[in-house]
Amino acid sequence: MGRLVLIRHGESEGNRDRTFTPTPDVPLTDVGRAQVRMAADWLAARFRPVRIVTSPFLRARETAAILAERLGLPVGIEQDLRERSYGALAGRPYTAVRECTDYDPTVYWKWCPPGGGETLLEVAARAGRALDRVAAAAADEEVLVVTHGAVMRALCWHVSGVWGTGRVARNAGVVVVDHRNGGYLGARPVDDD
């Protein structure tokens, strides 16, 4: 059996400011770097990953670099693990969603941010293909997958077929996905106790 350990990047400047990040180049905050260092120690005590695969966005790459330094692992970039496109909401506060009259929280995965955004279904298709590639290359290994909150939500649906309550993984939060013979055995959030 293989295991994919999904981890959300540490707190970014966008998370701190409660805004949809305007560019891929938004860095981690000092708090975010501390979160990732703590997560790296926690992961080292519980898992034996052989490599890290990360989103190309700066906050994810910085997270992967901190993990790689602590765990002594190589890092590869997977373009399709990038964050969801929020279109015209990029750079705006999270609360701007309330201005979107077509947003329905009961079917949030179908909603498309205005101005070229992506639905979570589209994210799941794109990022799901990436996760499938990582899983196929790691049949019996553990791999860390560094990505973003919306992407993790979409990947959980990709492996389980169930949309959650809409709650996004916390910064440096972990979701474990076991897989065997090309099939997923579900996704489970992991507490850090």
Describe this structure in words.
This protein is an alpha/beta fold. The chain has a single domain (2-190), classed as Rossmann fold (3-Layer(aba) Sandwich), CATH 3.40.50.1240. It is built from 5 helices and 6 strands. Strands 3-2-4-1-5-6 form a 6-stranded mixed sheet, with helices on both faces. The protein starts with a strand and ends with a strand.
What order do the helices and strands follow? Answer: EHHEHEHEHEE
Which regions contain 5 or more consecutive residues with pLDDT less than 50?
none
- The CATH H-level superfamily is Phosphoglycerate mutase-like
- In the residues, how many domains can be counted? 1
Mean of pLDDT: 94
What is the percent of helical residues?
Answer: 25-40%
N- to C-terminal separation? Answer: 24 Å
Q: Give me the Rg, rounded.
A: 16 Å
> What is the count of β-strands?
6
Major sheet: size, sense and barrel closure? Answer: 6 strands, mixed
Widest beta sheet: strand line-up: 3-2-4-1-5-6
The CATH first-level class comes to Alpha Beta
Shape label: globular
